């Protein structure tokens, strides 16, 4: 099992979500975050110049069984590329999972 | 209950004839000025960080409450009591006074004056926001409304030496705003800048205001209330055209203040900064406060324009001298208060109640001279008096919250709550 | 369109001579009181959680709208119609009435009374917030403004039995506030506390209000509107000094309420709680509502002080008896409403319109007795009537939302939106 | 300083006798109407996304400021100057005018008219929010307040051809609201919908408003200010009963608008949508604006009810024709403005100042005919004129921000700040 | 060492936190997130129908030494089951940790 | 490749970010969270006493190639120690990464 952490621009969410739903991946956790970009930006507030280095981004987290990982990454890429192509995916190994209600553990908790 | 008996002197007064129309006007104006407290608290809360927003709201609530009580017990007597050309000395707790002041019931006249005292006090809260101790602020509020403001007021409006000289400050560019602005300068300077506001190399950092809707609604409320502030300073409705002229000027000057603040910030910084445009409205309002009755619409427009420029430059200048004024109270009320007072000497008409025609509308420099003496003596007095006041408070309870409290935010430390409790995280927690 | 023809009786009326100044005053006061709706909605929204904030705004909007219509169709007739000492029975849909009420156009007099009815209704929304069904609240609003409030009002202001006894409630500490507070008590008690508010061992949990700026601006708006509420209750401008005294007292009492609420919460809890200080202002305002004309400034100060203490203690007491009142409506309006009414018997002056001098200013206990009879009969009547009303609503549609709805929040369930939609997460979603 | 000398013509005027009571009323009404700017800015900010909230606040601030100045320099002369039945041509910069307008000081009369011009301008900002360039909006604001609105105003209130025909628009359902609504339609249509608002298949997506408390407080502020808007349009206080009738109708119609918007949205969509109920209040207010003096309370109730229905249906209809109006300005001000104007011909009474009795209260269809001609000519004129104005602006500076700017939000791109800066993330950053 | 990522409904937090405190697990990091559910919901805003597929959830993160993992999962399940039983747990392997102040690394940083 | 999860106090962000930029680490994702502390705090709201166990913290996430991990941890510690020294770092193994725009995978996506 793998845990995918995806960082996107917020405006990409609808397309990426749709692309994931299209390949039957329906479970994820989303949170608004701040991310860096290749360059910082200059701004000005009440006459004071300042540099902005953190921008609004969206972080998605998906727990997947191994055979679904490539499908998911392709779907994310497809949705993200429709809307600018920004974003990164980070993959870590999941050693265990649990569905609290049933107490089930492992692969069958991820459908 | 001896207090009740003691201070209840007005109970016994026989009712003279009052001017109904004028009384209604002054009461309504006072009510509008009262509402400016809401405006100040929203502007100040919006321009600071969430972690101190409840604290600044508290300060605005308390300074008005203390002002009402202090001005009732002490301030009114100093400002309007019979006395000498420096201070009044009769009418403590409003007792023993004539029930009528030029056709107005004393209670109406008092209320209008009391809300002015409250306004003066509250100007400072924004400038010292996010770092001044609540207890220290309580003491300051009491001192300014019981003593400092009433003395300045006595000089100009209470029959003191400046009124004898012919100094013209119709609604208080100097008496209220420059006094408040000067007190803000002393307070902000003595309490020092917020942690992280200035760098060692002298450059400034941005500390964002947390809510533009609050700043905007606050500014609109202030503008709304300012019609009471200026047009109510006629203290009656005997001359409807004067009141109307004041109201018109109180519209044109801030409108022009907005436009110029916008243009200057656009040219200087490349962005049309909303907070500066809103400050421009307030700058125009402060600028027109003294000359609102004495100038015509053309004068109001020029005064507003200069105010709009002044406020943007003034905010830049404060950064240079490393005084941290989160809301711009010092340029808005201090600088534009002085400018507006001087402007009477430039654009005022004798026919409109100024002492003599202004320098730029065919008169001599004499009016300007009197205006300059008046505004500078009052600013100097205020700086001196507030320096003493803040020094004393500093030595008694300390001016500034601890570094830990400043980092965590005053709201949780002093008031046990957050401005947006359970908001960023969940309600259910 | 028969409705138009039917209810249009005022069309045909011949215009008598009206008092312009008094009419203007009463209209302006009514407009100010109307604006208190904004104040109530902000205070209540700010003191609850985000997930029910839209719901409470909706309730405030609807209760005023229903109040205006119900008080037009039914309430006014019950309150001011000719009838017996218990209820009035003429003037349904305002038809068949004299076009003038003591020099005021009937429409102006109606408007001032209608906004009072709206105020009474809206007091309850905060106390039952976060759990009462919207449909149930609609029914409640109609009942209180069409029936319950008008009956109480008839007794005191409509020529009923209490007015015959000399009961003095100048602007409605009892008629409006204690009625609203008593209805809030019945409602909050019958609908029960919010999930998680009290523990099994009787101790309380904190459910934070979500926005202090809303609570603060709402309180300032209420104070602002209260000048109309109290000073407009002169129902004219024939005696400018009385109006001015009322306005002054309406400033001193809440100022003192703030200070005392602050001091008590500081001493009792070690923190200067902003929400309690703001409640202190409202407490002082409610307290001074009945006696605003009859007492002098010293009396106003004492009344405000006691109100400020009462409200803090009252909030603690509600926790003890496990009644959940998220905004403090019961102590603010109920307790201080009763206190203010009794205070007329303590500090009122006959020369100022009270029935006889108050017990603590040289009079006898007789006035206090009448005040006690009046306020307790009205509170008792309200509790009984509202108990019936809420019982009926409960059995017809149910009072309380489902547990699931309460956990998720009423906003999404009943109104299909969130108070801060797309805010915590992104706009683009 | 030649400007000052040039435009200062009013300086020299000799003071005639003014009507104090009427002047006070008109000034107070103007101040209340001014405050509607705060209402508009809160409603509009609340109904859009955070990323453009500061921009819409800025637009509201600027359009009023420009309106005040443009209406002073140019607009007033076109609207009220002596001229022909199409435009006025005297009184640029208010110079050379009679100091009194029917007993009101010219400055008071000007102020009341200037805040109306500001209202007209600001109606559009909500409809084009989240995508129109700030510079383009500046130009639009100037054009509507200097030229378009004054021409329409001249026709109806300035002695133009519609006033000669007996067209009755007491407080401006057409002159202000339908003009603003029509301009909003042209603007929203020409600038196009927000990205993502409509799908290729013609269906709509939801873009949530970000703050219901702002929408609610804004609506209450508008309602509050509307008492000045309607009841001040008496332009005096000579007939207290007329003013009172207007104020009463201005309460009943929006109350009914709320109820019907609620009921319709409940029946149609299964939810009681708060934003639609709030829109219902505004719809009722716009609807009663023209007929406020001419109808009785029954008429006001029916007019409000129809307005409440119209606004909900109108919002649905805009979705069908794919015009994106984030705040509902077009249905509220456009549709209900037309409806209210026509309603004079249905429910107006000759005895109440209408030209002849309305069709549904025993009169003929003639008044309705005149009303229809008036409102449709003005709407047609406005659409044509604004089409030209927006076309010119489009070709000179462009109407719409870049796609990147729209996605990121106009606040950071044009104003260098965020509406809630440092709020979602931490203050310390 | 393991890192537990727990996604709950917000109203479950107090009970879950208490259950963890009861087994002496006192350190965690919480953040409000949006999560999917088995079904989407229909809503209506200003007369426009739309589908909601992301709901308010709460994400907890706990770094634990291996011997504490089962205890923690049981405690979480206990607290969560008292309040509806919703929620998922995802477990990843922690390869290192550091307490910044002391510079300590590894297992002893997790108490 | 490793994924560092850092939990700091918010006021430490500027110094930590600067320290990371100084060692040429320019990419990260930040999010405001709530974290526990060694002790709970007593507070009081409208006269009701309550215990606060979650405080405002800041969570940073950095994906790094292995040879950068120690540099990053040192930089974080340096920045954090300038401002109180609070904070924790948790390290997990990254098994894969992807830059969406280019489709690149693995180590070269992390610069
Ligand atoms: N090495 C990294 N560690 C942690 N987060 C990263 C890393 N690289 C990128 N990110 C996150 O991914 C987001 C998207 O990355 P990228 O596509 O390069 O930026 P952008 O969205 O600005 O084009 C960044 O804003 C950042 O939050
Ligand atoms: N495979 C997954 N990947 C990422 N997050 C998931 C996954 N499955 C569930 N979640 C998260 O866990 C939360 C709880 O899951 P579950 O208990 O199934 O939903 P619910 O709380 O709606 O009953 C979801 O809302 C979602 O945020
Ligand atoms: N075992 C853990 N699991 C998850 N998060 C932890 C753990 N230990 C500490 N944290 C997080 O790291 C933050 C910083 O830890 P620490 O430095 O011990 O606290 P503080 O910042 O209060 O001094 C905590 O607030 C918490 O959010």
Explain how this protein is built:
The complex is a heterohexamer, with three copies of chain A (111 residues) and three copies of chain B (429 residues). With 111 residues, chain A is of the alpha+beta class. In chain A, 24% of the residues lie in helices and 41% in strands. In chain A, helix 1 (13-22) crosses helix 2 (66-82). The model of chain A has no long low-confidence stretch (mean pLDDT 94). By secondary structure, chain B is mainly alpha-helical. In chain B, 66% of the residues lie in helices and 1% in strands. In chain B, a hairpin with a 2-residue loop joins strand 1 (100-101) and strand 2. The longest helix of chain B is centred in the C-terminal third of the chain and has 31 residues, at 366-396. Chain B is globular, with a radius of gyration of 21 Å. At the B-D interface, helix 2, helix 8, helix 9, helix 10 and helix 11 of B face helix 1, helix 2, helix 3, strand 2 and helix 4 of D.
Structure described in brief:
Chain A is an alpha+beta fold and 111 residues long.
Key words describing this protein structure:
heterohexamer; A: 111 residues; alpha+beta; Alpha-Beta Plaits; four-stranded antiparallel beta sheet; 2 helices; B: 429 residues; mainly alpha; two-stranded antiparallel ribbon; disordered C terminus
Total number of beta strands of chain A: 6
State the fourth-level CATH superfamily of chain B. Answer: Ammonium transporter AmtB like domains
Order of helices and strands of chain A: EHEEEEHE
Helix content of chain A: 10-25%
Radius of gyration of chain A: 17 Å
Summing up helix and strand content along with how strands pair, one would put the structural category of chain A as alpha+beta
How far do the termini of chain B sit from each other? Answer: 47 Å
Largest sheet of chain A: 4 strands, antiparallel
Oligomeric state of the chains present here: heterohexamer
**Can you list the ligands bound to this structure?**
adenosine-5'-diphosphate
- Regions with little confidence, pLDDT below 50 for 5+ residues of chain A: none
Class from secondary-structure proportions of chain B: mainly alpha
Largest interface: B-D, 68 and 70 residues
The 3D shape of chain A can be described as elongated
The total beta strand count of chain B reads: 2
Number of separate domains of chain B: 1
Number of helical segments of chain A?
A: 2
């Amino acid at each position: 099992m793998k845990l995918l952490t995806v960082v996107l621009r917020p405006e990409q969410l609808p397309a990426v979500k749709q692309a994931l739903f299209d390949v039957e991946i329906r479970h994820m956790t989303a949170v608004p975050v701040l991310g860096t970009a290749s360059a910082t930006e200059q701004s000005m507030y009440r006459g004071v110049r300042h540099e902005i280095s953190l921008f609004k981004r969206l972080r998605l987290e998906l727990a997947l069984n191994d055979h679904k990982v490539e499908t998911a990454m392709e779907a994310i890429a497809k949705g993200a590329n429709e809307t600018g192509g920004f974003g990164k995916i980070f993959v870590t190994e999941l050693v265990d999972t649990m569905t609290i209600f049933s107490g089930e553990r492992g692969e069958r908790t991820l459908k | 209950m001896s207090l009740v008996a003691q201070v209840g002197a007005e109970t016994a007064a026989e009712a003279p004839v009052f001017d109904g129309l004028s009384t209604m006007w002054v009461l309504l104006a006072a009510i509008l000025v009262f509402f400016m407290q809401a405006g100040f608290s929203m502007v100040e809360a919006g321009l600071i960080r969430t972690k101190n927003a409840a604290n600044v709201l508290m300060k605005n609530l308390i300074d008005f409450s203390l002002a009402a009580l202090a001005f009732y017990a002490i301030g009114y007597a100093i400002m309007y009591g019979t006395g000498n050309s420096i201070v009044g000395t009769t009418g403590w707790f409003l007792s023993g006074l004539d029930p009528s002041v030029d056709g107005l019931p004393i209670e109406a006249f008092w209320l209008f004056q009391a809300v002015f005292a409250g306004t003066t006090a509250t100007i400072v809260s924004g400038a010292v926001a996010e770092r001044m101790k609540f207890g220290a602020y309580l003491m300051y509020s009491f001192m300014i409304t019981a003593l400092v403001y009433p003395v300045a007021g006595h000089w100009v409006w209470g029959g003191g030496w400046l009124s004898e000289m012919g100094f013209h400050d119709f609604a208080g560019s100097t008496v209220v705003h420059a006094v408040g602005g000067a007190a803000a300068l002393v307070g902000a300077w003595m309490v020092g800048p917020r942690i992280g506001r200035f760098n060692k190399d002298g450059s400034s950092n941005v500390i964002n205001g947390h809510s533009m809707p609050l700043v905007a609604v606050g500014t609109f409320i202030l503008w709304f209330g300012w019609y009471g502030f200026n047009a109510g300073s006629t203290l009656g409705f005997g001359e409807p055209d004067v009141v109307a002229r004041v109201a018109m000027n109180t519209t044109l000057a801030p409108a022009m203040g907005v436009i110029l603040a916008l243009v200057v910030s656009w040219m200087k910084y490349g962005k049309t900064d909303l907070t500066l445009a809103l400050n421009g409205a307030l700058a125009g309002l402060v600028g027109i406060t003294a000359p609102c009755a004495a100038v015509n619409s053309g004068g109001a427009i020029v005064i507003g324009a200069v105010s709009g420029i002044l406020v943007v430059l003034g905010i830049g200048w404060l950064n240079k001298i490393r005084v941290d004024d989160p809301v711009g109270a010092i340029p808005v009320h201090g600088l534009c208060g002085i400018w507006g007072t001087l402007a009477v000497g430039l654009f005022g008409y004798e026919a409109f109640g100024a002492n003599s025609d202004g320098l730029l509308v065919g008169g001599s420099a004499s009016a300007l001279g009197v205006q300059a003496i008046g505004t500078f003596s009052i600013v100097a007095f205020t700086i001196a008096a507030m320096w003493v006041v803040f020094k004393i408070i500093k030595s008694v309870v300390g001016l500034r919250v601890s570094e830990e409290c400043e980092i965590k935010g005053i709201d949780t430390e002093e008031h046990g709550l957050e401005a947006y409790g359970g908001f960023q995280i969940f309600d259910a927690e």
